[in-house]
Design goal:
By secondary structure, the chain is α/β, with parallel strands linked by helices. Helices cover 37% and strands 18% of the residues. It has a single domain (21-68, 101-205), classed as Rossmann fold (3-Layer(aba) Sandwich), CATH 3.40.50.850. It has a six-stranded parallel sheet with strand order 3-2-1-4-5-6, with helices on both faces. Helix 3 (45-61) runs parallel beside helix 8 (196-205).
């Protein structure tokens, strides 16, 4: 019996499904993470391209788009003990090129850019309140890293009551094994991991853009 079969037999890996009002959450596709010369970076070209595709659809349907970056004031007081565990976070200086959204998916006017200091996009931000105010019930997630900020944000999305959808081709990690393991676990417990094609099909079928 495979792990997937075992989980399903024991009551895991059910589907939360899509709702009626989606928003897109693009997590940490910033220069520091998409530039392989940075210690935090890796090659995420394919994931960026998949994100650009779904981002274009969100814009065409006029659905909400939220970007996430991670940044710290010099001195890193707001990094707390996190930076002790991950010293490479010192590359993420507020206002620097490193923390800007990758230009291939550059935000447009009206699209929110949230700045966080820890893994989850929800921790220490007003993201949940804003999504609620926008009447969002479905949060579609892309970004990096799968094992870090994507995972933490997906768990918090579930805990905040949103139907949480992770687009498989549009999330990435510097570790292939961590990427694979965390996608499996997210799909088993907190989110629906879906293909880009399935996410695009859903968007085309949502009846009332808002």
């Amino acid at each position: 019996m495979s792990d997937k079969e075992m989980y399903q037999q024991r009551g895991f890996s059910s589907r939360v499904g899509f709702g009626k009002k989606p928003a897109l959450l693009i997590i940490d596709f910033i220069n520091a993470f998409t530039d392989e010369s940075c210690p935090l970076g890796s090659n995420l070209d394919k994931e960026i391209e998949a994100t650009k595709q779904i981002l274009d659809s969100f814009r065409a349907y006029n659905f909400p788009v939220h970007f996430i970056t991670t940044a710290y004031e010099e001195g890193f007081a707001s990094a707390g003990v996190f930076i002790k565990k991950v010293p490479s976070l010192s590359h993420l200086i507020l206002g620097s090129e490193s923390v800007k959204i990758d230009k291939r998916i550059a935000p447009k006017t009206g699209e929110v850019i949230w700045t966080k200091q820890y893994a989850s996009a929800f921790f220490g931000t007003a993201l949940a309140a804003t999504l609620t105010a926008q009447n969002v019930d479905t949060l579609i997630i892309t970004g990096c890293t799968t094992s870090g900020c994507v995972r933490a944000s997906a768990v918090d999305s579930c805990q905040n009551g949103f139907r949480t959808i992770v687009v498989e081709e549009a999330v990435g990690d510097r570790s292939k094994s961590a990427h694979k393991a965390n996608l499996f676990d997210l799909d088993a417990k907190y989110a629906d991991v879906v293909s880009l094609e399935e996410a695009e099909e859903y968007l085309s079928m949502v009846s009332i853009p808002f």
